[in-house]
Write a structure and sequence with these properties.
The complex is a heterodimer of chains A (884) and B (111). By secondary structure, chain A is α+β, with helices and mostly antiparallel strands. Chain A folds into five domains: 49 residues, no CATH class; 192 residues, no CATH class; 223 residues, no CATH class; 168 residues, no CATH class; 198 residues, no CATH class. Chain A has 28 helices and 24 strands. In chain A, strands 16, 17, 18, 19, 20, 21 and 22 form a seven-stranded mixed sheet that branches. In chain A, strands 4-5-10-7-9-8 form a six-stranded mixed beta barrel. Chain B is elongated. Chain B starts with 7 loop residues before the first helix and ends in a 10-residue tail after the last helix. Classes of the chains: A alpha+beta (884), B alpha+beta (111). Chains A and B meet through helix 2 of A and helix 3 and strand 2 of B.
């Protein structure tokens, strides 16, 4: 007799809502009744009744268990999983430790790096209306190309008067000076303060990051008043009773007497606006400061800052138009303007302030963050986290063979795949959570350890909920990324295979993925090794390269430009008296330094006339001897600055179109004295006056009797003596300025600051990446050895020696590392090309540098697995064969 | 628990399980009840009752053999447990005792 299947839909519905325990018998009952009904009443009616039976079975006896029961069940599962996972971790202590360590280092590095990146990105986020705040800066083109973060002094008041769309405007001067405190008995020295400013009340309307704790901003409309930040006030007066501080007197720079009329508290948030003393702006006009600060339109100073808050965001178009008008107005009022360059004012949005390296922040502030470095940093952090995760996946899947029996037994006993997944995810979850918590102290002390080249005040912000939330996110993502794949591999073992006795010799899946992951890990490490090698190769090349002039053992001191030359003479006399000083010279510009004067000349031949942009330095007699720069033609300058004689470099001569430098002597060009009234009297050998990022460009030297920079030579042992000897004289002459002795080679080293920082970062990253990769390798080789114990034993019995055994064990890894090396080569090559584009002068990468990189990674790998392998190869075969 | 007191329907089910000895599964119980009492009992109320009785411990159960007339599904076969028997006996006793105590005179007006 044939049976008719009941209708599918109600059956499906029934199977959906019916509890597993009773599904079979109930479904069977329904089936049986249905068959009877079909026989008695035909299938149509039977179907309807079948429907009815299913619906009427929607009663408690058939339903799946309720939620309460379910959550209880989950708790039981969880408890069970946790216990088993815990036991398992304790059982495999080495692997657990390796997993924990690798993952926590990876997470710590990532945490540290996102802390740095977040810190840099957090600047000025707290200032309300930051999207409507703009700074006005100055941009020059023509003879002198560049930008200045400040403006001409009259610009601020001019904008305030003539621009309609302002909600508020802040113009202020940054300043540094000694501070003294007037007490009833005497005057107390407070030392030099560098974050002073002269500000209008408008400052507090534009930069809204202050709370007033005493006094008010209107007091800044009066001359001789000052507002302090609470920290600064505490530093001066040693009390937090703010109202007591009001009306106390401070003395700036010996004679500027002002009264404290307000105390503000600055937000904790990160900001480049870290001024401590706000002296009222009208004080400038009322004192001798007038001559120092209030110069005309022709003088741009980075101390003069203008910030404004627009009415609406859209008003930026009006502002830009207005600034073009201001350019014209300024030009008409600038008496010094000779038309050789164009000054234009531009608006910089506040959010860009912290990142624009070409403009800079304030005189007293650290230089802006380098966006490119931040991006590299972010990528490196991510890669390291990835390596750590790969590591984890590798070790877990490798370990899976050990777990095959457990999985087999569980499956036979009816464990569902989802339950098994949960079981193994719990294990990876425990490790992830533990490593995340371990990562916090590692990151904390790591940041402290590397504090030298990190921005100040940078610490992990524990009070920030965002930090904890991101920690939880990392935890969740890592445990899922790292745990899901291995758990899935393990949970999909076929029970029959898993329970067979010889599984330990079988490859149970995930082998390909595992190999791919090792490959990737070593690829990343190899790349980082190469990057580090290349960058340090370039840096050492640049630092060792003969620049064409002496820079070692030369110290420089700059006397304040606004002080009298006579004072400098006293200092020079002092140097004359010192036997330790071998030689000294005064000049306008050093042979190599950051700033650069650029001008335009016209060069006329019989047939053509051409304009060129050339650099210029003002020097004194003896300059080229002092720095060992050789002449290729012509003579020294005659010490007379009314003469129109110039010394030029070889590039200058080439630019003029003259082949032989000797021919250039006596040639005329037009600089600033009209047609062909300036003459070349000497040609020097080309030397690098800029960093090696740049080609050697045309340069001319003109005689100038005075200059601010003194260079002197002294032997290494005598440097301190010299400094000690001139310090008292200096302090007497220039009480406002601290003595700053710079080393020439230091200055040159600082040309490559960015590269050096990147190099430091990549070397740290490389060490971390190698460390994690090697940990992983160590773990993997341990497993391979355990799995191959018997094989090793048999081979030994048959006469294999230690070397042959080691080869067999390492072969697999060496192939992977070799492949990683080969893949990394073209990528490195590409990186090197991109990197070299930054420099006009490159050290060609020697082939052995690549070989060295490969050798480094292979030997590190061998060292990390070598001990294990040798131990395994030397083990007594009796022990391993007795294994069963 | 309401104790071991049996409801009327429960008692019927229990009795039927006893009658069907070793072949007492839901569909058979339903058919037997229909036959013996002439009541239209739905399958789902039989299900509800047997499971409840099992939970009370008055019925035991085991899974039967697979048969093709049930689409390859096994049936659950119920048998009366010791406490089931006690409950049945008790219910029977009470009913009989009470019935016996009714004086004949009480029915006199009916005849």
């Amino acid at each position: 007799m044939s049976y008719q299947d009941p209708p599918k839909l109600p059956l499906k519905l029934f199977r959906w809502f019916c509890t597993e325990e009773r599904l079979e018998e109930l479904e069977g009952d329904l089936f049986e009744v249905y068959q009877d009904l079909v026989e008695a009443k035909g299938s149509a009616i039977a179907s309807i009744i079948y429907w009815w039976m299913v619906i009427s079975s929607f009663r408690s006896f058939a339903l799946k268990s309720t939620n309460r029961n379910k959550s209880l069940k989950i708790m039981t599962h969880f408890k069970h999983n946790f216990k088993i996972a815990w036991r398992n971790l304790l059982k495999h202590k080495t692997t657990s430790a390796i997993n924990l360590l690798g993952l926590s280092i990876g997470i710590a590095t990532f945490l540290g790096i996102i802390t740095i990146v977040r810190y840099e990105l957090s600047f000025h986020k707290h200032i309300p209306n930051a999207d409507r705040v703009y700074r006005i800066y100055t941009s020059f083109s023509g003879a002198y190309n560049g930008t200045n973060s400040g403006v001409a002094a009259p610009l601020g008041p001019y904008v305030e008067e003539h621009f309609q769309h302002l909600e508020a405007i802040a113009y202020f001067k940054t300043w540094s000076s000694k501070v003294k405190l007037q007490t009833e008995q005497d005057i107390k020295e407070m030392g030099k303060e560098r974050k002073l400013t002269f500000a209008t009340p408008g400052y507090f309307d534009v930069i809204q990051q202050y709370q007033w704790v005493a006094g008010n901003k209107e007091s800044l409309n009066q001359p001789h008043t000052v507002v302090l930040t609470d920290e600064q006030a505490y530093k001066y007066f040693g009390t937090k009773n703010w109202s007591n501080i009001l009306n106390k007197e401070l003395i700036y720079s010996d004679s500027l007497r002002v009264d404290v009329t307000g105390i503000v508290k600055q937000n904790e948030a990160n900001s480049n606006f870290n001024f401590t003393d706000f002296i009222s702006f009208p004080t400038i006009e009322a004192t001798w400061l007038k001559d120092k600060f209030n110069q005309g339109w022709g003088s741009t100073s980075s101390a003069s800052q203008v910030f404004l808050l627009l009415n609406k965001k859209e008003d930026i178009t009006q502002l830009n138009n207005f600034l073009t008008e201001v350019d014209k107005h300024a030009k008409s009022l600038d008496e010094d303007d000779d038309g050789s360059w164009i000054t234009s004012y531009k608006a910089q949005p506040l959010p860009k302030l912290h990142f624009d390296t070409s403009i800079g922040t304030f005189n007293s502030e650290r230089s802006p963050a380098h966006r490119k470095t931040l991006i590299i940093l972010g990528v490196v952090g991510f890669v390291i986290l990835l390596i750590a995760i790969f590591n984890f996946i590798n070790l877990e899947t490798a370990q899976s063979t050990m777990k095959s029996k457990e999985v087999g037994v569980r499956k036979v006993l009816g464990s569902a795949k989802s339950l098994l997944l949960g079981r193994f995810l719990t294990e990876s979850g425990i490790i992830t959570i533990a490593s995340t918590f371990l990562a916090i102290p590692i990151a904390h002390f790591g940041l402290k350890y590397f504090a030298d080249f990190l921005p100040p005040k940078l610490t992990v912000d524990y009070s920030n909920p965002v930090f904890w939330i991101s920690l939880i996110v990392i935890m969740a993502v890592v445990s899922i990324l790292a745990g899901l794949y291995p758990s899935w591999v393990i949970a999909s073992f076929k029970p029959i295979n898993a329970l067979k006795s010889n599984t330990s010799n079988q490859k149970l899946g995930g082998v390909f993925v595992r190999k791919a992951l090792i490959l990737l890990q070593f690829l990343f490490s190899q790349l980082l090794i190469f990057v580090t090698l290349i960058i340090s190769w370039q840096i050492s090349y640049m630092l060792d390269k003969e620049l064409g002039f002496t820079n070692e053992g030369i110290m420089t001191v700059s006397t304040p430009y606004y002080e009298d030359v006579a004072k400098q003479k006293i200092l020079l006399n002092k140097l004359d008296e010192m036997p330790e000083v071998k030689d000294y010279i005064v000049q306008g510009e050093l042979p190599a330094e950051f700033g650069m004067m650029t001008t335009t000349i016209n060069f006329k031949t019989d047939t053509s006339e051409s304009a060129h942009s050339v650099h210029m330095k003002n020097i004194q007699k003896g300059y080229f001897e002092f720095y060992d720069i050789d002449f290729v033609a012509g003579n020294q300058l005659i010490p007379n600055d009314t003469l129109n004689h110039y010394i030029v470099n070889e590039s200058f001569v080439k630019k003029m179109g003259i082949k032989d430098p000797a021919d250039a002597i006596g040639k005329a060009f037009d600089f600033d004295r009209g047609a062909n009234h300036d003459f070349v009297v000497g040609v020097i050998k080309d030397y690098h006056f800029q960093s090696l990022h740049h080609q050697i460009e045309p340069m001319m030297f003109s005689f100038k009797d005075d200059g601010e920079t003194i260079s002197f030579k002294a032997s290494k042992d005598n440097i301190q003596t010299v400094i000690d000897k001139i310090t008292p004289t200096w302090n007497e002459l220039y009480p406002d300025e601290p003595l700053e002795v710079k080393f020439m080679d230091d200055t040159i080293r600082r040309f490559y600051e960015t590269e050096r920082q990147t190099s430091k970062l990549t070397s740290i990253a490389t060490v971390v990446a190698i460390l994690i990769s090697c940990l992983g390798l160590f773990g993997l080789i341990s497993f391979t050895i355990v799995r191959k114990t018997k094989e090793i034993g048999i081979r030994k019995v048959l006469g294999a020696n230690t070397f042959q055994l080691s080869t067999i064990l390492t072969k697999e890894f060496l192939i992977l590392i070799g492949m990683a090396f080969l893949i990394s080569l073209p990528i490195t090559f590409f990186f090197n090309q991109k990197f070299e584009e930054n420099f006009a002068y490159n050290a060609p990468i020697a082939w052995w540098l690549y070989a060295l990189g490969g050798l480094v990674s292979i030997s590190i790998a061998l060292v990390s697995i070598g001990l294990k392998i040798i131990k395994a190869s030397k083990s007594n075969p009796v022990n391993s064969l007795r294994y069963e | 628990m309401k104790g071991t007191n049996l409801g009327e329907f429960e008692e019927l089910i229990l009795l039927t399980v006893g009658i069907l000895y070793d072949n007492a599964y839901s569909v058979a119980i339903q058919k037997e009840l229909n036959k013996q009492t002439g009541r239209k009992v739905t399958l789902s109320s039989v299900h509800a009752a047997v499971y409840r009785l099992e939970e009370k411990g008055l019925l035991n159960s085991r899974m039967g053999e697979m048969t093709s007339e049930r689409g390859g599904k096994r049936k659950r076969i119920f048998t009366i447990s010791q406490s089931g028997k006690v409950a049945l006996d008790k219910a029977n006793d009470i009913r009989n005792r009470l019935r016996d105590q009714i004086p004949t005179i009480a029915f006199d007006h009916l005849s």
